[in-house]
Each structure stands twice: as structure tokens, then as C-alpha cells.
Amino acid sequence: MERTAASVAHAGDPQGDGVRRDSRTVRAAYERFLGTGEPPGGIDPVVADSWRRSLRSGVDPDTPHPQVSLADDDLAAYRATHPLAAVMPVVRELVVDGAADDGLVVAVSDEAGRLLWVEGNPRLRGTVDRVGFVEGAVWREENVGTNAPGTALATRRAVQVIGAEHFSRPVQELSCAAAPIRDPATGRVLGVLDVTGRRAAATHVVLSLVRATVATVERELATRAAAGAPPGIAAPAPVDLRVLGRPALRARDGDRPLSLRHAEILLLLAEHPRGLGADELAVLLHPGELSDVTVRAEVSRLRHVVGPLLAGSRPYRLARPLRTDAEDVRAALALGDVRAAVAGYAPLLPRSVAPGVERLRAELSAEVRAAVLASGDADVLDAWVRGADGAEDLAAWTRLLVVAPAGSPQALRARARVTLLDAELS
Description:
By secondary structure, the chain is of the alpha+beta class. It folds into 3 domains: 2-226, Beta-Lactamase; 239-323, Arc Repressor Mutant, subunit A; 324-425. It has helices at 2-7, 23-36, 45-56, 72-80, 88-102, 122-130, 141-144, 148-155, 204-226, 260-271, 278-285, 292-306, 325-334, 338-344, 355-375, 378-385, 394-403, 409-425; strands at residues 105-110, 115-120, 159-162, 175-182, 189-197, 239-242, 248-251, 254-257, 310-311, 317-318, 323-324. Strands 2-1-5-4-3 form a 5-stranded antiparallel sheet, with helices on both faces. Strands 8-7-6-11 form a 4-stranded mixed sheet. 42% of the residues are buried.
């Protein structure tokens, strides 16, 4: 496995010299990173970034804690209505049927990282069961650290995680490859396809198989949509959450306005699919002290607004994943469509002072800004600096001045703005 693992490049794509994936090198870097927190040099950049996120999330490297948030009956009902239910026969035909003979397990999750189907080799099923890789469990990075389905969800790209690259030690005997499955019409992530195993799962062949299967699944989804077929058993009242601009729930029968506090709670629960306790919500909702009683009262009022969308109270969680327009922006960025991302972007719940929301707002703004600055597209830069986040962005104005045609209105406006901002800063 060490020879095979060393030959696999970053996310299945060549990365050149300096990146090592053999077990001994990766394990030494991993232990050094846990002990010092220093950036792990020489490691696949996708893995290194994921280790940092895992550490910031407080993941225990010795004991993964995937939360099983749906009981058997609830899970069966939920996945029956999921858009990927209709294409599971395709997944089984392409990968599951051969997985049992190849010593592999195939898993399909939803867009929140919840495992809906886990099928394949019975012996390996017993192994993955022991680390909590079971139907109904949430395998996001913030729960269990670096892992292919969770990291594919975090990065919105195909990834392969080999042995010791897993953040959680009990999972390091396994390797896995995963890729997001997107709605062909909207680009939204519907879920993730993952193949997990031992030596066989560390090869280019498995990563290629995952990518090819996802491509076939997405074509099947597109064909079904074109033919007017439902993507699965019809789900009741699909709902999205609008948080860029004025908050609202978006449903088939139109938008339903939300108070700022209710939008904050729904957004935070959407970002934490495992659920949040009243004390955790209090910390994320208020920069000072907020009592658990106040939180419970707010959630009680929210239940009257959204009904069955909220489930449980220990912890509070959503009964089903809730898409947000912030995810639409991230999906556009993942597809390399910076223009669409900027066109759809606005500050996330701009009036909110909830610490959890402020962090999400800053992260989304930074992601869009980085893509804008890297694009070198004058029109994209112009759209950014016309928005609330870009109006005082000296770096963006300076970049626009460089790429805009000399003497154009864009260049003249950028020169004037750069001059003004330079004067203000000095």
C-alpha cells in the first residue's frame, strides 16, 4: 500500500515534486502536526488544509464521533424522498455489485454529510461499522476530521484520502475516494458518492471509478428531469433559506419572510446538521450572555413558523437539510463560475451581530473576494467593487486598474478610487 499510496497525487491530479503520500512520511507529518500545530509541509495540500480545519473544529484524533441523527424509520422515510434515491440502481450496477468481490464498501450521503446508503463487502462492513461509518451517521469534517466524503463535501471536489491522511487514528487503516454529486440543473450538491476499503481503495482506479460513476449519475438525473420524471418520491414542500439580503424561506408557493433571529437560528442549524444544544446556540447567537431559557423561547416561536422543519430539542436540529443561497454562491465558485458567484452574492445577514453568523459572513466574503482577485476579469472586479464588500477594497480597485483597458471608464474610475483610498489610508 505504501508504494501505491505514494504514487497517488493530490485529489487524483498530478502535483509535481514535494508531495508525499506514503504511510511513513504522512504518519510522521501527522504526529508532528498534532504535537506542534505547525503547517504540515510535504503533505497533499487538500489533506493539510483539512487537518487544520479538523483541529480547529476540536475533533478528537483518537475517538471519532459521527452522530447518528436519524432512527431507522425516520432514515428510511427521509432517504425514500431524497433525489438520489431514484439513481441508486445506477450506483449499485456500476460500483456496489462489484464492491463485495473487491473488498470495498460504497456509501452515498446527502448534502449534509449524512450517510443514507452503505453497501458492499460484508466483512469490511463490519470494520467500518466499528468506527461509526453506518447509515444515518453524519461524516462531516467537523464531526470526524479528514475523510473522503466529508472532505469532498467541504471542498466541493473529488478527493482521495489514503490511510494515515485521515485525521482520526481509528480510521487510518482505511482509504477512501469520494466525489460530490450535483444537480445538473442548478449545480447544487445533492450528496457524495464514496468508495472505502483497504489497499484497493488507495489506487487511481478507484478514484477514476468514483468520478465516472458520478458523471453517469448526473447524466441520469438530467435525463429524468428532461423527461419530467420526479427525481425520487416527491418530498413534501421543498424549502430553501435566503440569507443573502432580506431573510426568507423560499418555497414553491413563494417566499415567507423571517425575522432576523429566526433566520440566524435556521442558518446555524443548517451549518451544524448534527444539531446544537441550547447552550451552544446561545454562544453562537449572542456576543454576550444569552440564557438557555431565552434560546428555548426563540426556538419555540420558530417552530410555529416552520413547523416540521425543526426536529428534536436535545439537541435542536433540522428534520431535513436546508439549502441556502449562500450554498448557491459556493457552488458557482466550485464550478469556476466567478461571475455567477459575484452576481448572486450579497453580505450574509448583514444586520446580524451573532458571532456564529459573523464568522460565516466573513468566510463567504473572503471566499468570493479571493476568487474575484484571482480571476483577472475586469467585469468581475467591477461588479465586486460596486458591491458593499468591495467599495473600500483597495486591493480589488488596484487589480481593476491593472486589468481594465487603459483609458476605459473602468480604468478611470479605478484610478480615482485608488488615489482616494491611498490618501485616506496614509
